From TrEMBL:
Belongs to the GST superfamily. GO terms for biological process: glutathione metabolic process. Residues 1-59 form the GST N-terminal domain. InterPro entries: Glutathione-S-Trfase_C_sf, Glutathione_S-Trfase, Glutathione_S-Trfase_N, Omega/Tau-like, Thioredoxin-like_sf. This is Glutathione S-transferase. It is found in: Cytoplasm, Cytosol. Its main location: cytoplasm. It comes from Dioscorea cayennensis subsp. rotundata. It is an enzyme of class 2 (transferase). One of its GO terms (molecular function) is glutathione transferase activity. Keywords: Cytoplasm, Transferase. It catalyses: RX + glutathione = an S-substituted glutathione + a halide anion + H(+). One of its GO terms (cellular component) is cytosol. The keyword Transferase applies.
Length: 134
């Protein structure tokens, strides 16, 4: 809640999904869904951009003004979503050889991300290293 906007958090049981979730996100049936004035907005990255656009009078903008930098940030956010996150889910739900294979792929993607961020957003990389010292 870095923008200081008040909100109510509603926990969802993902094993027994509620009818409310299915109605709010009829395409994917997944969380998160942001509901504003009764209108649902699913998908994390879409939600983040919506929040950034609507509450844009605050000092804390998630995306910078420069369209090229915005495009590059969207690129790396997409990389994390399309490459890293699916592997995280597979690593925790598989064993043995399959898990090793996905773990190796995961490390490869992490290296790509590290190289990309160090080159394009060195300040962001230093921040990540400072807050995630593993
Ligand atoms: N692309 C979606 C992915 C959301 C997602 O995977 N949500 C998980 C929880 S972290 C979920 O709802 N899982 C339930 C399911 O897959 O049935 C997003 O970025 O919001």
């Amino acid at each position: 809640n870095s923008k200081g906007v008040p909100y109510e958090f509603i926990q969802e049981d993902l094993i027994n999904k509620s009818q409310t979730l299915i109605q709010l996100n009829p395409v994917y049936h997944k969380v998160p869904v942001l509901v504003v004035d009764g209108k649902p907005i699913p998908e994390s990255l879409v939600i983040l951009e919506y929040i950034d656009e609507v509450w844009n009078d605050k000092d804390w903008q998630l995306l910078p003004k420069d369209p090229y930098i915005r495009a590059r940030i969207r690129f790396w956010a997409g990389f994390i979503y399309q490459k890293l996150l699916p592997n995280c889910h597979t690593i925790i739900s598989t064993f043995g050889e399959e898990q090793d294979k996905v773990a190796r792929e995961f490390i490869e993607y992490l290296n790509i991300l590290e190289d990309g961020l160090k080159k394009e957003f060195p300040w962001l990389w230093r921040l990540i290293v400072a807050v995630c010292p593993w």
